């Protein structure tokens, strides 16, 4: 068992019922592990042993649940906060490119401040549907396996975009 | 008479301007060889009263990804065909009424996600005067998780009839998926359990950092 304080904190957090949206994403990832139903989206880290994947899931949960220290994101009534997380060990850069930024590069970079290979970032986005992909090291387009929703990009090579549905802040309970 | 003249002028000038705006956003972002064909499709969309933003976005996406010209143009063309099909479906659901661009775009997005047109039409007919995106996404979520499309639609229509609207319909799909994942349940069992909960399906929680995407 790792003595990484973030993983320990994550395990403690997972002992209590997490928010549905986070649990949904983590469980979705865990459920996905033994299956190979989406070969076009399968990446090497999805084939890791289950224990490693569970540790990763715990790490992801911690990132999603713990305050980031960045409290400057305040969505308007017709906006919501999107949280992006990806595991890209050894990557030099990871950014999110999608319909919300006109598929422009250099506008939403993820961070890996502690160099553990887990990249994350938040953004205030208009409520509604957004398609996106990660761009790793400037030239590798990767579908976000944690997105939970996917759509063919329509360019004929079977590539899928990740699909994010942002709920308006005004619709939150 | 003056009003009519203004409307005619707005249509005559506004359409080409809209097409031009879309085209100008593409300059330098897509291969020059693809621009004439894409411009032509955007102009066609304007002339037909279809939303152009999905086409502009698809072209920008293709350019950003470095998609070869022929495939990029085909991708945009596929988007135009989906918009046309979407407009037909919206027109059937609300005959004789205006077809908001947002509704047409939402239906096209649902078709792109693989939702069968018959299901789309049924959902549009069940709530003809509401923004269709949430219920269409909820249906697409359920179909993607291998629920029977007709049974999933039955559940969503019942949820709507019991007062659930907008993004709350996404919670219905999430609840069905949770029920299925609890183990030992068939998809129809899971749908039945959620039906029994209606309209009190669990709402999404809010993280400490604010509302999240779902």
Describe the structure.
The complex is a heterodimer of chains A (173) and B (214). By secondary structure, chain A is an alpha+beta fold. Chain A folds into 2 domains: 66 residues, no CATH class; 102 residues, Immunoglobulins (Immunoglobulin-like), CATH 2.60.40.10. Helices cover 23% and strands 26% of the residues of chain A. In chain A, strands 2, 4, 5, 6 and 7 form a 5-stranded antiparallel beta sheet that branches. Chain A is globular and about 40 Å long. The termini of chain A are far apart. By secondary structure, chain B is mainly α. Chain B folds into 2 domains: 112 residues, no CATH class; 90 residues. Chain B is elongated, with a radius of gyration of 20 Å. Classes of the chains: A alpha+beta (173), B mainly alpha (214). At the A-B interface, helix 2, strand 1, strand 4, strand 6 and strand 7 of A face helix 3, helix 4, helix 5, helix 7 and helix 9 of B.
Pick out its properties:
heterodimer; A: 173 residues; alpha+beta; Immunoglobulin-like; five-stranded antiparallel beta sheet; 3 helices; globular; B: 214 residues; mainly alpha
Strand fraction band of chain A? 25-35%
* Computed Rg of chain A: 16 Å
The residue-averaged pLDDT of chain B reads: 88
Distance between the termini of chain B: 49 Å
Low-confidence stretches of chain B: 3-11, 207-214
Q: Give the N-terminus to C-terminus distance of chain A in angstroms.
A: 37 Å
Please state the CA-atom Rg of chain B, rounded to the nearest Å.
Answer: 20 Å
| Biggest interface, residues from each chain | A-B, 53 and 46 residues
The number of strands of chain B is 0
Ranges of chain A where pLDDT stays below 50 over 5 or more residues in a row are 13-24, 33-71
- Helix and strand element order of chain A: HHHEEEEEEE
Instruction: Look at the helices and sheets of chain A and give the structural class.
Output: alpha+beta
Work out the helix count of chain B.
10
